TrEMBL record, chains A, B:
The keyword Transcription regulation applies. One of its GO terms (molecular function) is DNA binding. It comes from the Bacteria. InterPro entries: Homeodomain-like_sf, HTH_TetR, Tet_transcr_reg_TetR-rel_C_sf, TetR_C. Keywords: DNA-binding, Transcription, Transcription regulation. Residues 8-68 form the HTH tetR-type domain. This is Transcriptional regulator. Pfam families: TetR_C_13, TetR_N.
Amino acid sequence: MALTRKGQATRERILEAATDLIARRGVAGTSTEDVRKAAGVSGSQLYHYFDSKQALIRAVITRQAEVPLVPGRPVMGALDSFDALRAWADAAIAHQERNSGRGECTLTSLAGELAPADERSREDLCNAFLRWRSLLHDGLRAMRERGDLVPGADLDELSMALLAALQGGSLLSQTLRTAEPMRASLNAALAYVHSFEA
Amino acid sequence: MALTRKGQATRERILEAATDLIARRGVAGTSTEDVRKAAGVSGSQLYHYFDSKQALIRAVITRQAEVPLVPGRPVMGALDSFDALRAWADAAIAHQERNSGRGECTLTSLAGELAPADERSREDLCNAFLRWRSLLHDGLRAMRERGDLVPGADLDELSMALLAALQGGSLLSQTLRTAEPMRASLNAALAYVHSFEA
């Protein structure tokens, strides 16, 4: 379905409201009626773009997959140097600090809540995580090709470790309401990458 | 309330059923009626031990906090040597492999689902995570006192990094259905600890 410019703006407004509510209350605590009110649209408008709560959730996941790895930050350049990786980690830590450790990550919340239950949404989440991981993988490959990393550096493992550190840090920071877990986990993962410095 | 031996067994059966269902379906997908059926108890029995769904969830969290850091494993000894930490990591990876990456961690699921919404349960989750972290912290302190780790090793950061690696690995392994994230994240965190070897 091709949307008019106005239609796209409405759809985007609904998705923004849904993303924000899910980050704060979880999927179970967010009804389509909540989303409708927050977005300031009518029930028939909402239904026009998303004919079920699941369709809305899946669109939120797909949209978040497009977002750079740290929410609330403008699109980053390639993560293809130690400095760029450090800046990425610092941005994630700063995001938690600004929100007193409540810097919600919509996808982290969704992964905890949906993974066991909803197969189609789980697949969307997989794709979102794999897309993020590929950004890290691309950057690390450029570093290895440039000779910043030793030839034997296992890019699959390193990129997965960085993504897991971001997710684990996010989950614990969200629960403990402090940025310390994010700082500790990203420092550890970056130190691991540094241990393969050429 | 002091429970008879039979009462304790019934309460434990209810908690086991609830823990299992929550790990597989999430909190939102688990009704007290589901728990009642799975545990094979009457409605009045269930209500006798847990007068609300929230009371049941909080008891599940408290019970999981008592569980050693890797579910499905008998209680471990102290995590106070590089070998013990490696065995702990290997057990967590093996747990994901046995379950094709679906080795659900009830607390990881709960953290993703509840943290934004439910303040009392969030505090219970905090306590569970801090308890686990203190097991790691105790082990690392013993290593530092014994001279395995350099005097400057930051035990707060190291123990948090290990716990975040376990949680991030669990979340991603659960979503991607492979043990690779758990392996990558724990290998990275252990390498970080090793970098402080005396």
